[in-house]
Amino acid sequence: MNKPSIAIIGPGRAGSALARALRTSGYVIAAVNGRNPDNARQLAKEVNARPTATAAGALELAELTILAVPDDVIAPLASEIAQSMCASDGKSAVHLSGAQDRAPLASLRAAGVRTGVFHPLQTFRKEPEAVNNIPGSAIGIDADSPLHDLLTRAATDIGGEPFDLSGVDRVRYHAAAVLVANYTVTLLAEAEALAQSAGIGKKRAHDGLLRLLTGTANNLRATTPREALTGPAARGDDSTIQRHLDALASDPTLQQVYALLAQRSRRLKEAI
Amino acid sequence: MNKPSIAIIGPGRAGSALARALRTSGYVIAAVNGRNPDNARQLAKEVNARPTATAAGALELAELTILAVPDDVIAPLASEIAQSMCASDGKSAVHLSGAQDRAPLASLRAAGVRTGVFHPLQTFRKEPEAVNNIPGSAIGIDADSPLHDLLTRAATDIGGEPFDLSGVDRVRYHAAAVLVANYTVTLLAEAEALAQSAGIGKKRAHDGLLRLLTGTANNLRATTPREALTGPAARGDDSTIQRHLDALASDPTLQQVYALLAQRSRRLKEAI
Fold first, then answer.
1. How many angstroms separate the CA of residue B120 from the nearest CA in chain A?
2. pLDDT by residue (tens digit) across A71-104?
3. Closest approach of chain A CAs to the CA of B156, in angstroms?
4. Which CATH number fits domain A6-168: 1.10.540.10, 3.40.50.720, 3.40.50.970, 3.90.1200.10?
5. What are the backbone dihedrals phi and psi of residue B116, each rounded to the nearest 5 degrees, phi first?
6. A residues 87-106 near B, CB within 8 Å?
7. Domain map of chain B by residue range?
8. Domain B171-270 CATH superfamily
9. What is the pLDDT of residues B223-265, one digit of tens each?
10. Of B129, B211, B228, which is closest to A136 when you measure between CB atoms?
11. Contact criterion met (CB < 8 Å) for A199 and B169
């Protein structure tokens, strides 16, 4: 299977990380397009691609076009490309959203373009180091063959772990990703603020609690969440939980977050 | 400053990890004691220490005794040792609890033993690899000099980042650690169950979401939680949040956890 030439539309966090990873893995990045021409030019220069004036122009230059744009932009962008492109022979287009199936690409499909979903179950920084998050990441794929095979190969080539997203309830799947990626960040932020209010310096609170988060993730590599869970809720130490809740009385919302997560933690530990 | 000889009372997760780390760093582990004689003997053998029949016997053999026991055992154990030990000259004893100050060691202090707190802000697996979580971990210290200096040196020797716990509100500090260490595990468990209910296989859900958690922690090394936060709450994408909440309607508690964390995420993003 030959490696298809790639167009990236949307030089943001995910689009940039994928462009870099694919190029490093031997793919030719033929074109980059974006709403902000400067960002598109900059990424294009870095991955030796042509910046294009239009999204359809990017699709014309490549076999596989990646729409790395916000969820609500996918459908209008696909429609715009479908209306202005010249030929669809041998063209494929995918989006990167975990929350959407292939429906927002329907206008491209109707115009003869093969469509699919390529969802890295990962979160990326803006900086070039973001590409380091890709190896080992699960990458959900939804497409008909032969595009499915081609995307599976691309996922593997960049060090990802491809899996099939067809038939998966995207809303529940996406909510699961949000719980882990977004709400862990929020828990850390709340914990940092709490530690500071306890008398710990800002940098010490961030560095120390982030190292604790990393240690927690380390522990989970070789065990299940249920086995990895420690702390007062796992031990059934109600008096410590009550002391924590009392200390959070000045912030009823955070107190409620703590109480609910203590309840779920105990439930996890007691599950058979 | 000479390295003090060490006694470990409580060969559990934290006690074992510290015994291994201290020995690797050139400390002599003189004694190990524990309620379960087999566990104590096994750790003693590994770190070339003497297993002792009593906790007081362990303290007699070492300059620095580490009480690596559950919070509610610290005070009775300290009292038991104080009553049966022969001499306190040059002896120090610390506990590892982040939730307690030096008060539970009062009976040892009254008997002439220097007392302190040595709290690794970290979570440890049972397995020997747990020792790998120590380097880079913040280690909170509360003691009068010269014990404070000695503990600071020991924390540094094992690769930790010592900081001063005196004057810190232990309840809020400990609650912060629980939010990060325990409730991140619980969020991951909830997300894994949710992804499975969406149609993802069990191992793929665990591996994929754990890699997402690791990527999230990676991102936070070079940025603040506020900057690292992405997702629907950070974007103010209320329709996606509502779809997630609808999908969680069959589990009102988890739905409430999601709603509260979405609210806190938005608050974090909007903070000035």
1. 9
2. 999 999 999 999 999 989 999 999 999 999 999 9
3. 14
4. 3.40.50.720
5. -165, 180
6. 99
7. 6-168, 171-270
8. ProC-like, C-terminal domain (1.10.1040.20)
9. 999 999 999 999 889 999 999 999 999 999 999 999 999 999 9
10. B211
11. yes
